[in-house]
Design a protein that fits this description.
By secondary structure, this protein is of the alpha+beta class. It contains 5 helices and 3 strands; from the N terminus they run ααβααββα. Strands 1-3-2 form a 3-stranded antiparallel beta sheet. This is Homologous-pairing protein 2 homolog.
């Protein structure tokens, strides 16, 4: 793994969380990988693992549609993060 990929993998949680919050729409892990791979150099395994970890931590939501998982920002946390107007 190249140095750039190692650094990207280390910050993957922040990158993915920020991306899902900014886009504010549901994505599959494949969609997230395709959208961020060139810009951040994240590998597919890193994206999948990080999305699952964020969902387990409650930072994002996850839903199953057949065999596919869909991930999206947890909007109930936006007030805490200061995204929503007060």
């Amino acid at each position: 793994m190249s140095k750039g990929r190692v650094e990207a993998a280390a910050g993957a949680a922040g990158i993915l969380l920020r991306y899902l919050q900014e886009q504010n729409r549901p994505y599959s892990s494949q969609d997230v990988f395709g959208n961020l791979q060139r810009e951040h150099g994240l590998g597919k395994a890193v994206v999948v693992k990080t999305l699952e970890q964020l969902a387990q931590q409650g930072k994002i939501k996850e839903k199953m549609y057949g065999k596919q998982k869909i991930y999206f920002a947890d909007q109930t946390l936006w007030r805490v993060w200061g995204v929503a107007g007060s």
